[in-house]
Fold Flavin reductase family protein.
Amino acid sequence: MRIDFDPAEMPRREFYKLLTATVVPRPIAWVSTVSEDGTANLAPHSFFNIASVAPPVVQFSSVGRKDTLLNIEATGQFVVNFASEGLFEQINDTATDFPHGVSEFEAAGIDSEPSLRVKPLRVAASPVALECEVHSTVGIGDSVIVFGRVVHAAVSQDVLVDGHPEISRLKPLARLGRDEWGTVGEVRELPRIRHADWQGPASDR
Ligand SMILES: Cc1cc2nc3c(=O)[nH]c(=O)nc-3n(C[C@H](O)[C@H](O)[C@H](O)COP(=O)(O)O)c2cc1C
C-alpha cells in the first residue's frame, strides 16, 4: 500500500520536506562568489548536479534570492568547492544567514586562496575547485537555476590516484532530509552491460 501526497493540497514547506528527504543523497556545491564591491561569499547548495558534458557545465539552484545568486548576477563568476567530510562543521557555518556585506570566509574562519581563472576565492582546504563562468540562468517559481561553464578545475594531488580522483580520498559529504548529512558507505563496482553481451535480466542470471 502507498500513501499519496498531492503538492497542490499541501503547504509548500511540507512538500519541500518530502522532496528533500527522498531525493537523496545530494552532493553539496560549496559555492564561493564575490560581490561587486569585493566582499567574498561562501555558501553550500545541495540542489547541485552536472548539466552538460561538452561544454562542461554544472548547475545549482538558489531557492530565493540569496547573496550567492546576487553576486553571480553581478559578476558572472563562481567556484564550486568540493564538500569533504573534514569540512563538515565549517560548511554548515557558512549556511548561517549572515547579513549582506559579511564574508563567510572571515566569519567562519575559512582559509582561502586565489583562483586561477576567476575572481571568487577558492577554499584552500577543499580538494577540488571548479572555477565557473555563468552560462545561463533559468527562473522557476521561487528558485533560480544557475548553469556555470567550468573553465578550470584545480584538484589536490592528495586525492588523485593515477591522475583520477579517488572516492576514498575525496570523502564527500552529502545532504539528506531534515538536518541530516551523509557520508559514502560501501562502494561497489559494476560495469555497464553492452547489448552484445546481454544475458537476460539480473534476476534470471
Ligand atoms: C547542506 C546545505 C545545503 C543547502 N542547499 C541549498 C540549496 O541547494 N539552495 C539554496 O538556496 N540554499 C541551500 N542551503 C541554504 C544556504 O546555504 C543558506 O541560505 C545560505 O545562508 C545562503 O548564503 P548566501 O546568502 O551567502 O548565498 C543549504 C544549506 C545547507 C546547510
